[in-house]
Amino acid sequence: MFSRTEEKWIEDNIPHARIYFDMPFALSTAGGDVTTTPADYESSMVEDLELITGQNPRSDHPIAGALIAALDRYRDKRTAT
């Protein structure tokens, strides 16, 4: 998910780009806790229970690391029983 200011840049600088759905607003309205980095296009990853999410494509490596760690924890839990 991109922050609102990141989405605004896309609308302003890419021809015919129009963001019709404000994801951070929608998630907040639905009760979600939306966090973003102070600067646009920085890596940001959040892990909350089974949810692993990132702010933008630059978050791919931290997300991958968190996913691998979660899968390892799951595997270890399964083999321990």
Mean pLDDT: 88
Oligomeric category: single chain
What's the Cα radius of gyration? 16 Å
Strand residue content: 5-15%
Low-confidence stretches: none
Helix-strand sequence:
HHEEH
Principal-axis shape: elongated
Sheet with the most strands, sense and barrel status: 2 strands, antiparallel
Domain count? 1
Total DSSP helices: 3
**What percentage of residues falls in helices of 4 or more residues?**
40-55%
Structural class by SSE content: mainly alpha
Ends distance = 37 Å
Give the number of DSSP strands: 2
What is the topology, as strand order, of the major beta sheet? 1-2
Question: What's the SSE blueprint?
Answer:
Layout: H1 4-13, H2 23-29, E1 45-48, E2 51-54, H3 60-80
Antiparallel strand pairs: 1-2
What does this structure look like?
The chain has 81 residues and is mainly alpha-helical. The protein has one domain (4-80). It contains three helices and two strands. The chain has a two-stranded antiparallel sheet. It is elongated and about 55 Å long. The protein starts with a helix and ends with a helix.
Offer a quick outline of the entry.
The chain has 81 residues and is mainly α. The model has no long low-confidence stretch (mean pLDDT 88). The protein has a two-stranded antiparallel ribbon with strand order 1-2.
Annotation keywords:
mainly alpha, two-stranded antiparallel ribbon, 81 residues
